[in-house]
Structures are given as structure tokens and as C-alpha cells.
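Hi there,

I know you've been waiting on this one. I reran it after we fixed the sequence typo, so this is the corrected version. Both the input and the resulting structure follow.
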Amino acid sequence: MPKSIHVERVVEVPQGVTVRVESLKVTVKGPKGETQKDFSHARGVGIRVDGNKVIVEAWSADTKARALVGTIAAHIKNMIIGVTKGFRYKLKIISSHFPITVKVEKSRVVINNFLGEKAPRYATIMPGVTVKVQGQDVIVEGSDVEAVGQTAANIERATRITEFDRRKFMDGIFIYSREVAS
């Protein structure tokens, strides 16, 4: 496939959000906080702010550079959504054998009495993410979609079972909803 002469994607910046670009390091500030992402690994791609638009472009781009332009534009859109609305993951606590107790302590989630174990299990909470336990639901919220997703994955992974039959022991904490908070 031939190279494209010029590839660009334009991302609209809403009112109340500021975007700053310094040598492929993008900082987005909004009402829900601030997120930063470093795109310095993206050689041949340029990012610039023009009024209320962020322009991601590449000159004489091959297939990989075209894909990279779209990926970076999507990351910047997610950063803007995160600082204006935020992201929310919901997890469900399921226990059929022993009642699981879940509580939040500083920067980790403590899971007690999982399958009757005496030692608690722990899951790390990423910086900038809040975790709330409401009954049988665990709600993970934040402005960075990667940090929110990683925290939810840490909680789900902490209750992973390997030595029991999964058809009989279905206990654990599982992600059931990913959404944009409002």
C-alpha cells in the first residue's frame, strides 16, 4: 500500500477543558482533574493545539503511522472524556460458600474470608482512583481510563481461583459494567 502524503485527525476540545502539548507530552485539565500522557515513543507523528482543536498528524505516513495517528487521537478523546465526565467500573461480589467482606484501606482493597481463607487478599488501587463498597457492589471511579481499568482488574485478579473447580466454586469479584460517569 502506498504512503499517504498527509494524515490528520482532529479532536474537538469542549469549553472548560485546556489541552497543553509539550514535545509530544499531552496534559489535559478539566473540572474532574488532570491527566497526562507521554506520546514521545510515536516517531513521525505531530500533535498541536489550534484554538479549541487538537490536531494529530503525520506526513508521508505508512500503514503503521496512519494507525498511530488514530490511536493517539482516541487516547486524547478518552483523556478529555475523563476530565469532563470520568469513568466508572462496577464489580459484583459473588459468594456462595463463605461470606466475603471487602473494605478499602488507604491505597488497597482488603478482601477477607474469601473461600474461608484466614489470610486476607489485597488489591492495589492506582493513584487518582476512588473505590467504594456499597453492599454487594464495588464501584471504581476516576478520570484516567487506564488507571480505573487497572484497579478493577487488580480487584478481580485478587479473587482468582486456580485450585478449585470453577463450575462449583464460582465465588469472586467480577466486573459487570464499564461506563462513562456523569
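Quick highlight: The longest strand covers residues 4-12.

Best,
R. S.
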